[in-house]
Design a protein that fits this description.
This protein has about 200 residues and is an alpha+beta fold. It has seven helices and five strands.
Amino acid sequence: MGPDLTVLALDWGRLERTPLAGLPGLLHEAACPEDPDPDAAPEAGWVFPASPKVPWCGRYEFSSTTGSYAPHFWAGEGWDAARGFADPALRDALDGFLLPLVREESDLPGAGLLPSDRTPWGMRLLLVGPPTRVAGLAAHWARAEPLLEVLRTEYDRHAARPGGSIADFDAFTVLLREWAVVVDEATRRCWGLLGLPV
């Protein structure tokens, strides 16, 4: 089955001022709020606030992934297969935008953000993006987006996975554009991003 991915946008100043001991519980509440409305429609897109208990946080629900981390992983794999055939300007811009979002990094910014003991859901962060880093992602997307369509033929030739969660160029760009929505909203608010495996 594999891990899920929940992306939170947070007021980074509030996050940094939150006592470390209480932070995992607040993040869990933002990702999986207690007492959800049983009559509410399924969420898609941004939910602000993520929980009434964490008003300085929003949660993004990807409509193209059903919460699974797998499509993000396969988008990264698809890009790895297609990037050598991309125009150098697109390659540089998309490397700067996509890879920090879908690839685990050994040196995530924000090390020490959570206590070293395991959280209730065995959490490790899949994404840490302070506001300055998120603004950099938005700048990379602004350069990549106008060039993206040129990649269609090469992506479908070298990276298509019929039947997979990222089957072709269209599925790849749907996920990229959802990430752009995530990054643009966090940038607009001057907030950071966290990715949690829940």
